[in-house]
Amino acid sequence: MQILDDYGIKEQSEIQEETRAAQGKPKDLLNLDKFSMILLLALTEYLLKSNTPLYDLFGEKIKRESITIKSKERKVELIESKDFFEVLGSIGIQLEDDENEDLKRALSFNHKQFANKISVKKLKNAIEQFAFNDELRRRAQECYEAFVEEEEMLEKEGHDTIKEQPE
Q1: Buried b vs exposed e over 82-111: b needs ≥16 C-beta within 10 Å?
Q2: How far apart, in whole angstroms, are the C-alpha atoms of residue 164 and residue 167?
Q3: Neighbouring-strand partners of residue 47
Q4: What span, in angstroms and rounded, lies between the C-alpha atoms of 21 and 49?
Q5: To which H or E segment does residue 96 belong?
Q6: What global pTM score does this model have?
Q7: What are the distances in angstroms from CA 106 to CA 40, 42, 51, 81, 97?
Q8: pLDDT, tens digit, 9 for 90 and up, residues 23-51
């Protein structure tokens, strides 16, 4: 669909073909910690429900950088991780910490060399997987439900919850 292309999201048939071609991707995302899964699901749902293109949401925070890998120079689109998590906070996706290390590691261009840079390509792929991969969405939903139960239990016991954390 042209609308999805405009928003940087591929059609389900394209995703399924790419998923078959790269079987490791959903498994990699399935190995994220539960809070990372919740954050990616929330971001995906925000983009789809608000009809906001990824490039509009992150705007000028996306930087095109030249990176040399094995003596070849490549241009890649990156977002500083602090900017990425600030944008999530600005759209109401509540964070446990300032930055989620597991998600940052999973989406970084190269965690060893560029630990604080989110790869736009990896982010787009993750969002596409969360938009169309039923197993991934089901797992993220289970993580969310477990999180809500934990929060309710903490609240009943009189402990601070993420919703009540002081700024």
Answers
A1: ebbbebbeeeebebeeeebeebbebbbbee
A2: 9
A3: none
A4: 28
A5: none
A6: 0.73
A7: 11, 16, 25, 12, 16
A8: 345 557 888 888 888 899 999 999 999 99
- Six-digit token pair at 128? 């596409």
* DSSP-assigned beta bridge partners for residue 74: 67
DSSP 108: B
Both tokens of residue 108?
A: 């970084």
Q: Could you tell me which of 134, 162, 161 has the C-alpha nearest to residue 15?
A: 134
**What is the tens place of the pLDDT at every residue in 128-163?**
998 888 888 888 888 888 888 887 887 787 766 554
User: Can you tell me the distance from the alpha carbon of 105 to that of 110, in angstroms, rounded to the nearest whole number?
Assistant: 8
Strands 62-69 and 72-80: antiparallel
